[in-house]
Amino acid sequence: MNDNQNPGGTGGLNPDDFEAFMRQFLSGDNPIDPEQLAEAAGLPKDPAAMAAMLDQIKQVISSLQAQGGTFTSGERGVNWELASSQAKALARSGSLTISGEARKQISDAVAIGTLWLNEATTIPELIGEPKLLSRELWVADAMPLFQALSEPVANRMSEALSENLTQNAPEEIQEILGNASGVMKSAGGALFAMQLGQALGKLSHEVLTGGDIGLPLFKDQRAAFVAQNLEAFVNGLEIERDQAYIYLVIREMAHVRLFKHSKWLRDAVVSQISKYASEISIDNSRITEIAEDFDPEHPDELRAALQSGAFIADRTEDQAAALNSIETLLALIEGWVDVVTEEATRRMPRAAAVAEAVRRRRATGGPAELTFGALVGLELRPRKLREAASMWREIGTAVGIEKRDDLWNHPDVLPSATDIENPTALISKLREDGKHPDAFDQALRDLLDK
């Protein structure tokens, strides 16, 4: 007997052979008997023991197979195709074609809203028709951004899950799973992908517009409306439909105008969030705790921990500072949009009622939005929103909308968190155009005044 054989009379474990076996097993293409598992793993050919082991492995990953996950030799980390297919499948559930009434209401609101926005902001109007999206199309448009934002934490979560589940598996199969680490990592990635896909799929039933959750989905800025959701929201307001549509359409167009004008803004938002996500660490003690008690027949605890963000470690001081910067930027954006929308709809009798409905909806956030926030460790709703809106309102009243809107021309002149808390110094600077008169200029003004 050579060194690669074990006392049970079978050949030694070959990692490549076993990984190929696992891929075949996970794909479900062909039935695999216990003796085949024993031969691939280099274990004794005990049919009863192998049958029990095979059943245990199958239970661990059966929920992933049921969701359409596939595993290939080159696949590592998160299965983004699975996430996308999950999200689109959920988005299609209950999806309706865009009604003629909704098309007309949105079209009429765009025509009116464009004129009213021109009075409320100096940022140029949009060129091109808005996009009317189905829920599935919203998922397709949103997926690239959500993937970019969640990929850093997703990959670390996948690695940590595979390591801990392998280490805490029954002793007799630890070596097997360890030698199929690539496949197990893919299984962990598939679990994260399923959760992300479900969160996005459910979110597609909640979002009203392209900018509804405060993130810039599109590189090519266009107003976008998830018409089915928008129509359902308007119908539930008990407010005149035309006024509700006008208000919500103006909000979206203001959001898009801002990002289209300030071309640096989208990159600033995405890069700040991506950097924050890249520094998130995983709480291995929590994963170990779950893995030690993991019951393959009842994977709900693992799913619930993943959905709640329980595996994400507490923030460091640097992360807290980074999060504060993100919240400040998102608050500046949403606060400006609120104020401009308020000014653009001032002649509309029920504007305040629609605004209050939007505030209530934004304050709570939907369950899918909360799930996504937990997955990436980031709340999407800025806490400084009211203060930021108040600051923009004060600036506009004090120095006019042109100087207010000019603050979006470059990131270096954008108000800070300190300005949000106390805009007095910023307003004073804007009144002086950022310049302080020298002694000669001041003497000349005093002479002319006399």
TrEMBL record:
A molecular function GO annotation: hydrolase activity
Entry keyword set: Hydrolase
Domain of life according to the entry: Bacteria
Signal peptide as annotated in the record: none
Cross-referenced Pfam families: Zincin_2 (PF10103)
InterPro entries named in the record: Zinicin_2, Zinicin_2_N
Record-linked NCBIfam families: putative hydrolase
Protein name as catalogued: Putative hydrolase
Phylogenetic classification of the source organism: Bacteria, Bacillati, Actinomycetota, Actinomycetes, Micrococcales
